[in-house]
Amino acid sequence: MEFNKDQLKYLKLLAEEYRTVSEASAEIINLTAIQNLPKGTEHFLSDIHGEYESFAHILRNASGTIKLKIDETFTDMTPAEKRAFATLIYSPDATLEIIKKETEDMQAFYKTTLERLLVMLERVSFKYTRSYVRRQLDKEYAYIIEELLYGCSGILYNQEDHRATIIQSIIDVGAADKFITSICKLISRMSIFKLHILGDVYDRGTGGDIVLETLKNYHSVDIQWGNHDILWMGAAAGNKACIANVIRICTRYDNLHTLEVGYGISLRPLLTFAINTYGNDPCPNFKAVASTKDAMYDADLDSLAKISKAIAIMQFKLEGQLIEQHPYYEMDALRLLDKVDYNNFTVNIDGKVYPMNNTFFPTIDPADPYKLTDEEEAVMNRLQRAFLESELLQAHVEWLFQKGSLYKRVNGNLLYHGCMPLTEDGEFDSIRTTDGYMKGREWFDYADRLVREGYYGKPGDKDKQRGIDFFWYLWCGYKSPLFGKKKITTFERLFVEDESTWVEEKNPYYKLQDDLDVVLRILKEFDCDMENGVIINGHMPVKKGRSPFKAGGRVICIDGGFAKPYQKTTGIAGYSLIQNSYGFILTAHEAFESREKAVLEEIDIHSTQIAREGTKVRTLNKDTDQGVEMAEKIESLKMLLEAYKMGVIKQNPRK
Known about the structure:
Layout: H1 5-17, H2 21-35, E1 42-45, H3 52-61, H4 65-73, H5 79-90, H6 92-102, H7 106-125, H8 130-136, H9 142-150, H10 159-172, H11 176-191, E2 194-197, H12 208-216, E3 221-224, H13 227-237, H14 240-252, H15 257-262, H16 268-278, H17 298-325, E4 340-341, E5 346-349, E6 352-355, H18 374-389, H19 391-403, E7 404-405, E8 407-410, E9 413-416, E10 431-433, E11 436-438, H20 440-456, H21 462-476, H22 490-495, H23 509-512, H24 516-525, E12 535-537, E13 549-550, E14 555-557, H25 567-570, E15 575-579, E16 584-588, H26 595-600, E17 607-609, H27 625-646
Parallel strand pairs: 1-2, 2-3, 3-7, 9-12, 12-14
Antiparallel strand pairs: 1-15, 4-5, 5-6, 8-9, 10-11, 13-14, 15-16, 16-17
Helix pairs in contact: 1-27, 2-27, 4-5, 5-6, 7-10, 7-11, 13-14, 13-19, 13-21, 14-17, 16-17, 20-21
């Protein structure tokens, strides 16, 4: 066998990791073993909207996966025992505190519970190699857990006695609580091989920063950005229109916790300006809605309303400037400040005149309505600096760029948050850009590249500023794959009582999702599995009585209403999706009140398995993207073995 120059260069690099024939052979055996194991379980979540407690509960119970494994494994347990055992795995610390108050014989409890937890751990870890399991172990108890899982067996030892002895030792030295907690967390972690977040970590809930921090520490995760994520990313990049939108949403929903406590962004300059400018305006249409009770006093809510109006006016000015600077955005319908009659207080929207519910606009010059006043400019500069200097926000946005993208192909499936912009007849819509017309996958790739240039580009470079501006377009643009509506009607909702002006016309994608030919065209555009691949997206809550499955199951929408305001429409508190080696399991979540209630009342998630064609044959790792990568590495290692045997590359045993 002959090796070309490039092959030899690669093999020499590979030889630095696998220094001998024995090491290369061992890795080939290891990878081959992994390939023939069942594929790991994937977990899909979307539209968390800052609802941290609900998110954390769903993450702990793996959307019902743990409960299903308990049902399959412990057929002799009563339903009550299963609920109690599941709750322990989800929230070990809190549950143990309750159990210790209510249980007389803790020795018996520890013994039974540890034995059951080990059986459960064996159940969730069997599809992983020992080396993978070892990497997931808590270092403090790694040796003991390995011994309990794989320790003495066979002719010379009685495995059951050996395990019982170790368990008793754990109890005797007072380590049972910590050990139980460690195994419970390991079971939760091992139950999910890969977590996919399909966008909108941020929005109305108060825990967007906490969700991001949790995801950063998760063992295996990727994210497809949502429009609310891109809004915060744009704010972190310094886009003033994005900053204004972020603050307006937070004040509108009484959610300053993420801004002030999470990211340390002070709104004092804005508060001072708002009180001085709008102090005599009751701002009735700017009162906080769907309150999270973040405000301490009614006076706080009054201040929030004034802040909300102040930042909204600045938002409309800044957005108007961006639209004028970038005519290819095709968003002139959002420029309404120049359509207002400031004498009669009416506004012309799409050729029709509507009365306005507010007549106080002290910072708007009718001759130049999109110009910020000196005071507004100063406030926005201070706010921009605060966003740019927030270390935690910048760290979270860095993570969103590292782990995220506009779309992802996974095992033949296509993941994205919003939509594929389409024409009425189901063709890919063309989008005019400064670099020509884009459509389909090319549009997604272009948009992804542009915002990365905006965040990482060299200061002063025109492409960097173009990218910074583009964050706002992705947030609410006419043909943004993250927004999917003709127009965002924020101005109309705040200033016009006629609700017909509030309607946001959806992209044709949302009515063509049921058209199999259209769906297959999208899958083909992204080189997905044409026979079994599915599109999984969120963004549009699935209304009560409607199915999250479209086009015969080839599209799955998993936004069922994490955010509380949507739950009247959806009837549930969100969907999530599990794909294991047998197929898909859709989980419908009940409304989540608190972790304390979940522990005390042993609340679990009701999950419904959805039968799909072709899922009865178990999928192995070799059938996945990971399997393809492993197959390629096996071939490379076989070449390395040949190079070692021929003496082309010398072995270098470790000392």
